[in-house]
Amino acid sequence: MYQYNDFDRDFLAERNAQFRAQVERRIDGSLTEDEFKPLRLMNGLYLQLHAYMLRVAIPYGTLNGGQMNVLADIADKWDKGYGHFTTRQNIQYNWPELRDVPDMLDALGEVGMHAIQTSGNTIRNVTSDHFAGAAADEIEDPRPTAELLRQWSTDHPEFQFLPRKFKIAVTGSPNDRAVTKAHDIGLRMVERDGEKGYEVIVGGGLGRTPMVGKVLRDFLPKADLLPYCEAIVSVYNLLGRRDNKYKARIKITVHENGIDTIRDLVEERFALLRPQFGGVDQEMLAGIEAQFAAPEWEQASIAPFNAAYHENPVFRSWVDTNITKHRNDDYAIVSISIKKQGQTPGDATSEQMRVMAEIAREFAHDELRISHEQNVILPHVHKSHLPTIHARLREVELATANIGLISDIIACPGMDYCALATARSIPVAQQIATRFDELKLEHDIGELKIKISGCINACGHHHVGHIGILGLDRAGVENYQITLGGDHTETAAVGERAGPGFAYDEIVPAIERLIEAYLELRAGDDELFIETYRRLGMAPFKAALYPEVKANAA
Predict the structure, then answer these.
(1) Sign of the Cα pseudo-torsion (229, 235, 236, 238, in order)
(2) pLDDT exceeds 60 at position 554
(3) Nearest CA to 352 among 90, 105, 67, 81?
(4) 523-545 b/e (C-beta count within 10 Å ≥ 16 → b)
(5) pLDDT tens, position by position, 484-506
(6) With contact defined as beta carbons under 8 Å apart, do 421 and 454 qualify?
(7) What is the dihedral of CA 512, 514, 516, 519, to 10 degrees?
(8) pLDDT digits 0-9 by tens, 260-283
């Protein structure tokens, strides 16, 4: 993984010192909150419903055990003993005191981490496939590309005051695990005639106007990446609307001007910018790539794994659900669920963080990943270590075998924390997970993506959930809309609203009726919910959700 050099360390130290002085001025009254707000947002500090919240970047979701340990230390020393992993591969601390934030940033800086550009109308944390560098289906590890983009975009003088926030995702696989089509720029690694490059997608996004991104270039040579991305953001910076923040994202710019016009403008700008990139960017990329070399693979027998798999049904269930094929047949990719039924999705205690850090150092080449689905990944684990890892995880309630199942729910913080939220998300996720655990139906249901947002901003990605739930305020009462058929993968789609919303105490029974209908309607045990929905459409599911309408019609 990327290691900070002297320039990185000096830059970060200077930024942190600058912010420390700004915090001191806010505390002594020299700065008003309105004056302080843009300064704190540049450093990832929000003012939430009850307290400040610090959002820390985990670039492209990659960190090591030492960094995870520091995240745990920060949770204990300056927060309430836990952190919240987000859909942007960040971690959030929900209860810091303002006076402590500079110390938190300095602690992060000591291990090469920061909170820069995790907020504001700028280019946010660049995200990537959480299986990067390990997946069997990968064309190329996308993380060097993501790191190059991080360095290019950090404090870029032209892009600090964009019309609205700007998000980039990169994947190296034809199977999209980075939600590239719901990003302002999505980059998918492709290969043409033996040359590797990118399919460039623009104009994706969720929020109050969800849109699937459009292909701007079907093949962009790797050497053209930075000038082409700079051309895209430059065109957006010029054309993007600043009169209405709800119409300021690049998805609206693309929609209002048309993809062909945007393409012509980007190509024109690219032609001017390309000669200015004289190869330094490619020298930087080569240096970055050298830091992402594969680990030295362990040579050992996998007999302990085979024995445990056949003898221990609990271990076998965990392997079948939480383990993904690695490009090395003797290795596995381990997804650690931090979605134990009844717990808050995405929350990890300091103890759990330390255990994951210890396991990574001892058994997983000192690498961890954070997924956009709010789980933690061990990307490189020799199969012989899996029984020991499973036992260690069970000790701290991290061995839940539910990756991809109905209780593996994405949920935003909702009205429990967020000042923008209009409804609760966390309790709904907890109740759904608990209910289907009680029914013992999770594994029978199979893969099913439920995503919950507590407001129209869609931080819970509800638009691209197989089942999406959006919490709204209706005359002071929480009301939950259901969408069906969303998809965050390479076949991305925005879900269709099923009908009127449900009250807080009605939403879990509604989901239960929906699942009962699916189990009756599916063509066989292997047909997933999304496949049944695509085959039959909305009508039978709508009838299950609103039985009173069907009864009245009869």
Answers:
(1) positive
(2) no
(3) 81
(4) eeeeebbbebbeeeeeeebbebb
(5) 999 999 999 999 999 999 999 99
(6) yes
(7) -140
(8) 999 999 999 999 999 999 999 999
In the numeric block, the tokens 């907020």 are attached to: 119
CB 295 within 8 A of CB 363: no
- 243-264: per-residue pLDDT in tens? 999 999 999 999 999 999 999 9
Q: What is the DSSP string of 344-378?
A: PTTEEEHHHHHHHHHHHHHHSTT-EEE-TTS-EEE
pLDDT band at 418 (very low <50, low <70, confident <90, very high): very high
Q: Are strands 62-63 and 376-382 parallel, antiparallel or unpaired?
A: unpaired
Residue 433 has pLDDT above 90, yes or no: yes
> 235: pLDDT confidence band, cut at 50, 70 and 90?
very high
Q: Who's near 306: CB < 8 A, 6+ residues apart? A: none
Residues found in the chain: 554
What CA–CA distance (Å, rounded) separates 34 from 42? 14
Q: What share of the chain is helix, strand, coil (3-state, %, to 5)?
A: 45, 20, 35
Radius of gyration of the chain from its Cα atoms, rounded to whole angstroms: 23
3-class secondary-structure state, position 321 = helix
Distance, in Å, from the CA atom of 90 to the CA atom of 165, rounded to the nearest integer, reads 16
Report the C-alpha gap between 169 and 187 in whole angstroms: 6
Q: In what order do the strands lie in the sheet with 52-57?
A: 45-47, 52-57, 90-93, 82-85, 347-349
